[in-house]
Amino acid sequence: MFLTICLSLIIIFSVTLLLYSGVALIQNRKLFGSAPKDIQEALTDHEERFKGAHLIGWILAIISALLILFAIVYGAGDGIKNHFGFWDFFVRFLIMLTIYKLYDMICFDWFLLTKSNFYQHYFPETRNCKSYNHYGFNIKSQLLKLFIIFPL
């Protein structure tokens, strides 16, 4: 269980780094496909914040993706080494995905999107978008993933 929690923490750290890379460094509007529609429409592409920002962002994004892959592969490898059965694997990965999804819903969708002005800092053209005041713009899909898709 301790390893499962540690791997979950690696995943949420990596996803946070990935988000920061995309929003603060890469700043390409094509990366915001899951944002609310009004925010997507208001977004514009930005020049590099500083020389090399896009390159650093892409490097961090690749590192993030590799860390996520590492957590999944290591969790599977450890399970094989410890002779996990189907239900042991199921519970491990269900816990990992649930922790990730709860973090996503609380930290990204609620805190960063509606409370912190994080996105508005990097994309000031979206300041007046109504979605920043509407937590749960994608709550149906989030809950569907949490309670139906992930367990399946």
Task: Tell me what you see in this structure.
- It contains 6 helices and no strands.
- By secondary structure, it is mostly helical.
- The chain starts with a helix and ends with a helix.
- 18% of the residues are buried.
- The model has no long low-confidence stretch (mean pLDDT 83).
Termini Cα gap: 21 Å
Number of strands: 0
Characterize the biggest β-sheet. Answer: none
Return residue spans where pLDDT drops below 50 for at least 5 consecutive residues. none
Helix content: 55-70%
Shape: globular
Radius of gyration computed on alpha carbons: 17 Å
Which band does the percent of strand residues land in?
Answer: under 5%
Q: Please identify the oligomeric state.
A: single chain
Judged by helices, strands and strand pairing, the structural class is mainly alpha
Number of helices: 6
Q: What do the pLDDT scores average to?
A: 83
Q: What's the arrangement of secondary structure elements?
A:
Blueprint: H1 2-26, H2 37-42, H3 53-81, H4 86-115, H5 118-122, H6 139-149
Helix pairs in contact: 1-3, 1-4, 3-4, 4-6
